[in-house]
Amino acid sequence: MKLTHLAFAATLAGATALTAQSALADVKVGLLGGVSGPIAAMAPPMLDAAQLAFQQVNDQGGILGGQSIEAVVGDSACNPQNGVDSATKLVNVEQVIGLVGPHCSGAVLAVANSVSVPAGVTLLTPSGTSPEITGLQDNDTVMRTVPSDDYQGRALARALLERGTSKVAVAYLNNDYGTGLAESFKDEFEANGGAVAGYAAHEEGKASYRSNLAELSRGGADTLVIFDYGDGTGLTILRQALENGFFENFVGGDGMKSEAVINELGAENLTTFVASSPVGTASTSLDLFRDAFTNVGGDPDAIFVTTSYDAGFLMALAIEKAGGDKAGIATALREVSNGEGEPILPGEWEKAVGLIAEGTAIDYKGASGDLDFDENGDVPGAYALFEVSEDTFKSIGEIK
Amino acid sequence: MELIGLANYAVYMAIFIGIYAILALGLNIQWGFTGLFNAGIAGFFAVGAYASSVFTSPAADGRLGGYDLPIVVGWIGAMVCAALIAWPIGKVCLRFRSDYLAIATIGVAEIIRLVVKSEGWMTGGARGINNVPRPFGELPYFQSQLAYLALIIAVVGLVYFLVERQIKAPWGRMMRAIRDNEAAAAAMGKDIEQRRLEAFVFGAALMGLGGALFAHFNRSITPEAIDPMVATFLIWIMLILGGSGNNRGAILGVAVVWIIWSMSELVTDQLPQEYAIKAKYMRIFIIGLMLQLVLRFRPEGILPEPDYSNHEKKKKVPDANKASDASAAE
User: Fold this and answer.
1) Which residues of A touch B280 (CB under 8 A)?
2) ipTM (interface predicted TM)
3) Residues B215-224: pLDDT tens digits?
4) Would you say residue A109 lies in a domain?
5) Is A114's CB within 8 Å of B218's CB?
6) DSSP 3-state assignment of A74?
7) Contact flag A92-B231 (C-beta cutoff 8 Å)
8) What is the pTM of this model?
9) Same-domain status, A158 and A134
10) Which segments cross the bilayer (chain A) (predicted)?
11) Which end of chain B has fewer CB within 10 Å, C or N?
């Protein structure tokens, strides 16, 4: 009993003393990520990418007339309970001016509904792809730098039909990412005259998906569309489909465009594999980010790092534009990336600050795309189809 | 740091403590008083959360909904649904004892999670349910939280009162008899199977209510919330630490564990930037360590189970057993 009391008292005392001290820091942004929990492997590079944006801001003279921007990392653990807990602390105790994150859609919904929208804090998620986020009643304060799964699924469906594929089977991971893509794909594919001969969800992390694949191939399609992650279950499915010859052609979403697929299966076996993925139309943006992120020891090909970086950089631009006014950040976000004005590329912080001071309109061209927000705070996203060529992915044309 | 911010955080914590207190009270009925090792709290939590969300949320394409019922109906519906699901599960699984029951209920919770994720026509699948109404949700941030807290306190108070009544009644005595010595209770003509089922269903209904309160607070529910770590094991730790078999202990355990769980992040955030990610795992470690310490030094929890028999005798007979218990606890 005494021990418990002691531990408890110490924690409380520690918390109060330490938070009081940290209140003296400059401009604070909440960086909410699924550090522990199911996406623990994906989260650190995403957080690093966002930190890179803030580091560039601080290296190039700081924000709001020389203050430094500090990211307070919160752990959403990819579930609503921890997400709301962490966001409440960031918004109320740390008094952050804006939130970058959370990473998972369920946490985004819960955090937006019970913390950020009531508190009037702008939330910018780099990886919440659920179409539900579009319909949030958010007073225009919830935005994202990653396109809703709805867009990509539809774009891919139209592209396949254009390429002459009219009968497919769809295997998708049973989470918000896989389901969102698969539903919109199926919807658009069938509406435009295609036939979905097999359509099944699968759970992640199983050793064998041969029975799922056998079931899917029974419909007679020779093309398999996989909505999954190429460094996870998607790889297993693709490998087993190739080994057993269930299908001839393979199509993937952006999750499948992973170097892991090529490294594990070999480029020579992937001649019939294409994957769609968001691309930045101004590809110099992407190159700038890749160089900068590689320099700090990051892997620019990790999933969602480009959107995370863009979210961090956009948040900083919006804070500068809004002059540090918490309520004005959502509006400012639209103003700094609406397709009109002087283009700003990743890392061009000093230039942006100068232009904002002059009152010139700026337009951020992100590493993950142009990021022009629509009325729901979504970005449309530009997609291209990629094929495997000499150990890397090569674009074979944009899809719309 | 602004005072209103701290107040907001405090109110939020109190709300979560209230929600978890209901879950812990439900578990206390099952484990604390009846000895049922239910490791599937997340499952009943999910049933309640989804049931209430479906009943009260506006219509949406592709799933059940649009009934727009009053929230109270949703909450009662959540309890009824959780109880209805618990009944057949109890019928089948309660023949198992201790560890075997734990394994079976973990399986049940996982089945419920997968059903929720896969049956999109009913639950919205992986997308979950959004726009669940929150009572007093249209008020500003602080007032809205405060009003919800008042509601939670009322619900927890009512649940606590009813559970206490039930436990002090002959029913509670019978349950403790079954827990402590099943053979003796059976010999006295108690219907063990039936009573255990009653406790299981009763506890599950409370867990369903906890789920409903959670969904309405967040105005949304997604399958990600059915995470065994935060919806099952954390509640077990709370109950064990607070004192199973004691309702006040259960609530105290919830408060202690949640405050440490939540505030430890503020402490670990003070570590240098390069440890920021590693530090997040510290609190999981802290909670685990606390459980170890409590089990080692105070296995009966912070507030041990009260000696009901002594209470019923109105302390006429000094109990030797009680005296030795007390000295052991010092």
Assistant:
1) 35-36, 73, 75
2) 0.88
3) 999 999 999 8
4) yes
5) yes
6) strand
7) no
8) 0.85
9) no
10) none
11) C
